[in-house]
């Protein structure tokens, strides 16, 4: 199992027609064995940690999280995947426990060390968020490699002042003003298994990564430089899964036709496994299986971290040596 940190029917069809043809770009996150990551169940239950950002009232944060989920859910009717919001009920940490978690980091922009033997791991300050996807890592087993078992979203409240761009911006305090919904909708794309629609040096994207047409994703710098004269590049830049965002940006709030087409293609309604049982969150410090292996890679477990909506940052993704 490997943690990797990395959309509906008629609506998607309308979008495709509006764009004059096939979707331009969607990309799946892949394992080292080059298999795309995927969820095998119909329902993903998302729960925030009990302690939310102090930047906004708790009830407003919860509403924004629910709105972000709905931005996807309202568009992916052609997919069997369902994102289901679970209200916070106490402390939750972002680690492999089978409970997809949304966690605000307010003190240090780091994942703390834990009782499983992992040391504190700090992230790039320019990343507004990071999504870690835990998946089965069996490169030689095509059936199982890439099966997602858990995924967590961490939000960087240390360097970002999260706010709701529908309202007047708050008084600045030196942190980057960042629309929470814009960030969350992008991260939810990673959580469902999507990769960025562009690449950059050092982003950790496996060389075998291609878009749904078999093409290597373009460099983010190429997209940004050419988007004003090339409609194809502009379409890529407009996707919710584009790797960078501007401060106060809101355009990633609404998944584009490409983003939606990705989820419908990966999780088509016709192949609904009809499994909506909520996995029992495992004891984060007792645990079993890979939770007991403190260091080093095991045959079946390792983590990959994908940085999320990145503010003017070239790093999008990070590999780590965690075991599970
Ligand atoms: Zn991202």
CATH class: Alpha Beta
Shape: globular
Judged by helices, strands and strand pairing, the structural class is: alpha/beta
Bound ligands, named by name, code or SMILES: zinc ion
Total beta-strand segments:
14
Q: What is the subunit organization of this protein?
A: single chain
User: How many angstroms separate the termini?
Assistant: 7 Å
Q: What integer is the average pLDDT? A: 81
Characterization of the model:
By secondary structure, the protein is of the alpha/beta class. It has one domain (2-319): Collagenase (Catalytic Domain) (3-Layer(aba) Sandwich), CATH 3.40.390. The chain is 19% helix and 17% strand. The chain is built from six helices and 14 strands. It has helices at residues 9-18, 58-73, 180-191, 220-226, 231-238, 257-266, and strands at residues 2-3, 43-48, 82-85, 101-105, 110-111, 121-122, 129-135, 148-156, 160-163, 176-179, 244-245, 304-307, 310-311, 317-319. Strands 1, 2, 3, 4, 7, 8, 12 and 14 form an eight-stranded mixed sheet that branches. It has a two-stranded antiparallel sheet with strand order 5-6. The longest helix is centred in the first third of the chain and has 16 residues, at 58-73. It starts with a strand and ends in a 5-residue tail after the last strand. The relative contact order is 0.25.
Question: What's the arrangement of secondary structure elements?
Answer:
Blueprint: E1 2-3, H1 9-18, E2 43-48, H2 58-73, E3 82-85, E4 101-105, E5 110-111, E6 121-122, E7 129-135, E8 148-156, E9 160-163, E10 176-179, H3 180-191, H4 220-226, H5 231-238, E11 244-245, H6 257-266, E12 304-307, E13 310-311, E14 317-319
Parallel strand pairs: 2-3, 2-4, 4-8, 9-10, 11-13
Antiparallel strand pairs: 1-7, 5-6, 7-8, 7-12, 12-14
Helix pairs in contact: 1-6, 2-3, 4-5
This protein binds zinc ion.
Zinc ion binds next to α3.
């Amino acid at each position: 199992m490997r943690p990797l940190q990395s959309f509906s029917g008629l609506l998607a069809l309308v979008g495709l027609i509006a764009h004059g043809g096939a979707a331009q770009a969607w990309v799946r996150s892949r394992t080292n064995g080059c298999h795309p990551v995927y969820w095998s169940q119909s329902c993903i239950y998302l729960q925030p940690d009990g302690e939310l950002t102090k930047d906004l009232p708790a009830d407003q944060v919860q509403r924004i999280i629910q709105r972000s989920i709905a931005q996807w859910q309202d568009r992916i009717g052609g997919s069997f995947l369902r994102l289901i919001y679970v209200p916070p009920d106490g402390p939750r940490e972002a680690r492999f426990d089978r409970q997809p978690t949304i966690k605000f980091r307010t003190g240090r922009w780091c994942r703390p060390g834990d009782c499983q033997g992992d040391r504190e791991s700090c992230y790039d300050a320019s990343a507004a968020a990071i999504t870690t996807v835990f998946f089965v890592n069996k490169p030689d087993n095509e059936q199982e490699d890439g099966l997602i078992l858990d995924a967590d979203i961490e939000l960087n409240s240390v360097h970002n002042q999260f706010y709701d761009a529908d309202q007047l911006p708050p008084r600045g305090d030196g942190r980057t003003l960042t629309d929470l919904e814009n960030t969350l909708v992008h991260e939810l794309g990673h959580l469902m298994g999507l990769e960025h629609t562009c690449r950059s040096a050092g982003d950790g994207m496996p060389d075998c990564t291609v878009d749904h047409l078999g093409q290597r994703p373009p460099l983010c710098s190429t997209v940004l430089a050419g988007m004003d004269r090339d409609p194809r590049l502009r379409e890529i830049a407009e996707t919710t899964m584009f790797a960078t965002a501007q401060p106060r940006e809101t355009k990633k709030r609404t998944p584009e036709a490409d983003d939606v087409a990705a989820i419908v293609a990966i999780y088509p309604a016709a192949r609904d496994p009809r499994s909506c049982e909520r996995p029992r969150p495992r004891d984060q410090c007792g645990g079993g299986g890979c939770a007991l292996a403190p260091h080093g890679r095991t045959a079946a477990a390792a983590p990959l971290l994908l940085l999320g909506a990145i503010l003017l940052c070239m790093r999008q993704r990070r590999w780590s040596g965690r075991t599970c």
